[in-house]
Write a structure and sequence with these properties.
This protein has 333 residues and is an alpha/beta fold. The chain is built from 14 helices and nine strands. It has two domains: 5-87; 120-317, Rossmann fold (3-Layer(aba) Sandwich). The two termini are 28 Å apart.
């Protein structure tokens, strides 16, 4: 987005300090910024009557906005800090915001801001998500590393959620090559430990990793945020691979969400291993089997690259709405 610190501060105030729902925030953006063509600086400079008349806001929402307006000075300071530490912002109104994510999520779910470190152009590659349990078996972890390694070597962007278990194995498998990976955090970027930040920044500076968070930079980890994060992981992907899932929990919800997003979901299936209940049930819900072990990596994973390429090509050639903002126009679930 623009380097204008005051405009960035207005975004931070609206999205995080107002405590308004995502649907309300995005509705304000559609009405005030998209339809009227005005900035958020102009929004916060307007009076409450203008807010009510143009955005059809109720009194409780207006009160929250007035409280957020009082914190604008602090948000300018935060915006300066983010710039100093090379943490960037892209908003849902920017051309750099991933269109794939806009198409996948409704107005009540799409993050108005993404914070990131690294090169957003990594998302222009074929993007394949690897998801699975935090307590996955060693077989599932080995499968994940092999899959991430093969896919990244062959030019795909491997995307994961940076939790322990399958997420971490996906990151390690991709980083063992010269390929690219995207990490989507379930917390604010500034809540990473110093060791984690040093490790990831080495990769982002080298151009091989992209670090993304939809949450306030200082937001701590919560189960609810991990669930929200999963929607972004699958929303950014062309194809989703499930290494191991239970019949409930984050991986199950993430895989179900991916199917609702009309993503192609593959589930690891092994004839020699005791069937995993979540994996089996996902197959019944419309996921496709990914047989493992295979004779070689090409047999297991080559067709995933072909399928993700086909999905990406369809998305690129689909009708593009004016400046992509019409993708926010429908609030329907």
């Amino acid at each position: 987005m623009s380097n204008d610190l005051q405009e960035q501060a207005c975004w931070l105030a609206l999205v995080f300090e107002s405590k308004l729902s995502l649907n309300t925030v995005n509705s304000i953006l559609v009405t005030w910024c998209k339809q009227l063509g005005r900035t958020l600086q102009e929004f916060f400079a307007a009076d409450t009557q203008a807010w009510s008349a143009t955005c059809y806001l109720k009194s409780d929402s207006i009160q929250k906005l007035e409280q957020a307006k009082e914190k604008l000075v602090g948000q300018i300071f935060l915006a300066e800090q983010l710039q100093h530490t090379h943490i960037h912002m892209t908003t849902v109104l920017d051309s750099t915001y991933p269109r794939t994510l806009k198409a996948a999520l409704t107005r009540s779910r799409i993050p108005p801001i993404l914070f990131y470190m690294g090169n957003l152009d990594i998302l222009a590659r074929q993007t394949i998500a690897l998801i699975g349990s935090r307590n996955a078996s060693e077989t599932s972890l080995n499968f994940t590393r092999d899959a991430a390694n093969y896919l990244s070597v062959h030019g795909a962007n491997v995307i994961s959620g940076y939790a322990r278990g399958v997420d971490r194995a996906a990151y390690e498998g991709a980083m063992n090559t010269r390929g690219c990976t995207t990490v989507v955090l379930p917390q604010g970027i500034r809540k990473l430990s110093k060791v984690q930040m040093q490790e990831l920044q080495t990769k982002t500076d080298a151009g091989t990793a992209l670090l993304i968070s939809q949450f306030h930079p200082d937001a701590p980890w919560l189960v609810s945020r991990a669930m929200e994060r999963n929607q972004v992981v699958t929303g950014l992907a062309h194809v989703v691979i499930v290494a191991e899932s239970d019949v409930k929990g984050g991986t199950w919800e993430g895989a179900q969400g991916a199917l609702k997003q009309r993503r192609i979901v593959y589930v690891r299936q092994s004839e020699s291993e005791t069937l995993l209940p979540g994996n089996t049930l996902l197959l019944e819900h419309g996921a496709k089997p990914l047989r493992w072990p295979a004779r070689n990596a090409d047999d297991a994973f080559a067709h995933l690259l072909q399928k993700s390429e086909e999905v990406q090509a369809r998305q690129l050639h689909s009708a593009i709405m004016p400046d992509q903002l019409s993708l926010l126009a429908s609030p329907n679930e």
